[in-house]
Amino acid sequence: MKLSLGFSPCPNDTFIFDAMIHQKIDTEGLEFEVFYEDVETLNQKTFRVEPDISKLSYHAYAYAVENYVLLDAGGALGFGVGPLLICKRPELEEKLRDKQNKDIDLSTLSVAIPGKYTTANFLLGLAFPELVNKKIVLFSEIEQALLSEQVNLGLIIHENRFTYQDKGLHKIIDLGDFWEQDTGCPIPLGGIVIKRSYPDKLKQQVNRIIQRSVEYAFAHPKSGLDFIRAHAQEMSEEVMYKHIGLYVNKFSIDLGKEGRDAVQKLFDKAMSLDLIPTTDKSLFID
After folding, report:
1. Of these residues, 158, 170, 220, 231, which one is catalytic?
2. What kind and span of H or E run contains 137?
3. Worst-scoring range by mean pLDDT, 13-17, 72-76, 117-121, 212-216?
4. All domains of the chain, ordered by start, with CATH?
5. What's the confidence (pLDDT) of residue 102?
6. 231 is known as an active-site residue
C-alpha cells in the first residue's frame, strides 16, 4: 500500500523521516509518496484533505480535526523551542518588552508571520493580541523582510532561531517561554496526522513506523546527513544539528501523557478564548 506523506524540508523533519522513506527500517509493507512544503502550505493541504499523512501546525489541526487524527510519533514539542518575536530597532525591543508602555500603539506595527494557522501565530495572539497588522511571509524570508524594513517585527521559527543575532536583529520575547510560564507544559508546535477514515490498525502501523524511524535516526544521527543537507536552507552542519537537537526529542518518539496533556491544554485554552472552532472529536489515535 502506498500513502502520500507531506513534511517540511527543515532538518528536524528530514531527520525524522529519512529512515522510513529510504527503507532503512521495516516499513511493514507500506510505501510513501513524499512531498515537501513549508508548514503553512502543509496546513492548507490538510484543510483540503489532500495528503494521507502530513506534518501540520497544532493550531491548524483545530481546522483539520474532522478529517484527521493525531499520531503519537513524529511531532515537535518541547521546552525552550518556541517561536521568537524579533525586531531590527533596539528602541522597539525595549518598548515592546514593557507591555505597560503607553508610548506605542501596537496596532500600528506590522509583523511578518510564517502563516495564519501556524502555532507561532496563535501564540503571538495570546501574548500580544494588539498586534493585528500581520503580513504572511515565507518563514525563511522573515529576517530579510525585517532587515529591508518591510515590516517592524518578525515572528521566526525553525533554524532562524540560530541566525537572527548574526544579522543584527533583536529578540523581544520567546513565545515558548511565555507559554511555559503560563501553563507549565511543553509547547506543542507541530504534529503528524493521518486521515481519520483509515482503519485503526493502519493508523497504529504508521505510528509504529514513524516511531521506528525516529529511533533509528537517534541511533544513527549521521545516516541521513546527505538527505538532510540536500533539503535544508544554506546552513552549516553544526546549525543543522543544533536545529535537530532543538526540535527532535522524546516527544518525537512518543507524545506520552505529558505531550498529550500539552496538546489538550493548547486546544482547551484556544477553544475557551474562541480562537479555534470547538470540537467533540478525539484528538489522538486510540
Report:
1. 158
2. none
3. 117-121
4. 2-78+187-272 (3.40.190.10), 84-183 (3.40.190.10)
5. 61
6. no
